[in-house]
Amino acid sequence: MKNVFKYFFLIIFCSSFSQNNKEIDTIGVDVLNATYLLQDNTIYKKKNNQSISYLNVAFGDIHSVDILNSLEIIVFYRDFNTIAVLDNQLNLIQAITFQDTILFARKGITNKIWRYNNDTNKIELYDYKSKTVSLSSPLITNFVPEDMESGFNYVKLKGNDKTLIFDRYLNLTETQNHQKNH
Q1: Of the candidates 91, 90, 89, 128, the residue with the CA atom closest to the CA atom of residue 106
Q2: R_g of the chain, CA atoms, integer Å
Q3: 42-47/73-77 β-pairing
Q4: Fewer CB within a 10 Å sphere, N or C end of the chain?
Q5: DSSP-derived secondary structure letter, 69
């Protein structure tokens, strides 16, 4: 009976110090039906019982991952103003560190990234091959952005009480007001 209690307390002691509660976030599924997951700052790509991963501790914590184009995956590290562009095997193609304060970054058309520049309060279409800004939105005032969503031909800048929708030329096309629950 003493041995049973010893084993019981040993199991309780070990399980209380184990770290089995690691959170796994689902990033999404790409057009080729591969699933992307984020766990412990590591990106995992799973398809057909195969798994590959990407981890870069030099850039800090991952803020967002954009899999809109699975050949150019955009990983944004907000703390270091850095974007990592990955290929479909999660190999690093290019790392870009910005001098400006970037709050959000999403995939645009080939070799381009939609980014929200907090220093200028504008959305910009940044060409990471030529390292230039191709397009820039008008100044965005009286708006606190909380998130950004994009496609190849649009950008949505989401705030607490409204969402601003821009076309591929960064013209404001629509403002959606959010309903407040009282």
Answers
A1: 128
A2: 21
A3: unpaired
A4: C
A5: S
Q: Which residues of 161-180 are buried (b: 16+ CB within 10 A; e: fewer)?
A: eebbbbebebeeeeeeeeee
Please write the tens of the pLDDT for every residue from 64-79.
999 999 999 999 999 9
**Dihedral over Cα of 38, 73, 173, 157: its sign:** positive
Structure tokens at 162: 């409204």
Cα–Cα distance measured from residue 125 to residue 113, given in angstroms and rounded to the nearest whole number: 6
CA distances for 120 relative to 13, 135, 148, angstroms: 53, 13, 16
Judging by DSSP bridges, how do beta strands 122-127 and 132-136 pair with one another?
Answer: antiparallel
Residue with tokens 């803020």: 63
